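Structure, all two chains, one model.
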Amino acid sequence: MITEKHLPEGHAAIEHAEHHPALQHHFENMEQQREAGTLGMWVFLVTEIMFFGGMFLAYVLYRSSYPEAFAAASNHLDIKLGAINTGVLIVSSLTMALAVYSAQVGQRRLTVIFLVATMALGLTFLGIKGVEYHEKYRDSLIPGKLLPSRPFNPAVQGPHEPYDEHKLHLSPGTSVRHVEMFYWIYFALTGVHALHMIVGIGLLAFLIFSAARGRYSPEYHAPVEISGLYWHFVDIIWIFLFPLLYLLGRHLEHHG
Amino acid sequence: MSEHIVSRKVYFAIFAALMVGTAVTVMVAFIDLGGQFNTIVALTVAVIKATLVVLYFMHVRYSSRLTWVIVGSGLFWLGIMFALTLSDYLSRGWLPPPVGPH
């Protein structure tokens, strides 16, 4: 206490206070560090909103230009797999939120368990997406010549042929080229979304590793929280992709 | 402001709402509501679901005003991009094509 007298007012407390080992020296305290990290992630997510927004806008413009072709293409997507994947992502958002909660209250084991569950659900989503992509490959619906061996060339239901669910059902005057436009947008949006999922799964692998080694505590768990923001954002993108790509035009579906 | 810990009860309630929203939007998609109502219902449900995720799962409801400003700015610029582009595309054909000088 004697030495503190010689220092300017207030300094002693700061200089000698025990601080958390995870506190970077350019922050005053853990609270400020956490807030700065959260804001940084939000700024990144705003750029992501604009990035995906551009593709959503392209979708809106083409859908309004070629409504029949887009409805026919939408109806050809696998709505069951799309709906299951929506459920899988929502459950993964719940487990991610519970992982953040567990980290906040210092339950290390539960944090790891929920992070592993989130990662498993993310991988499940990608697996189901892979099955869907394979169906598109089988039906020659990969647009353009992205796959030179399998150019865009779907079978179209003829007017007097027996009903075949694997064929495209186009109303008269609808161009298969406009259906191809739908598939360009479908693969661009779902492909970039899947890429974000892969990045998220990488983040989760890092978090699981760190959490299992006991790096997170009620005082310091910013990486879990910030990665959670990213994971939920990717979920939100799918919340919009699912109705736009799979559901719109479903009521116009006609059999035979 | 110190960190707000959202209770697990809230998380489970939001999760239930998201699942119900998904079920509703899938069921409604097969019913012909007439005109553009199918699109309006599907997008309204999606916006409600996204809002719930942002406010509760992403803790924005309990976050600082600066966070609100950043989130709001993202939506604002998204709105500019859509509004300006659509004001062009949707207004095409409102006027007859201009008559040339000849």
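Confidence is low (pLDDT under 50) at residues 1-5 of chain A.
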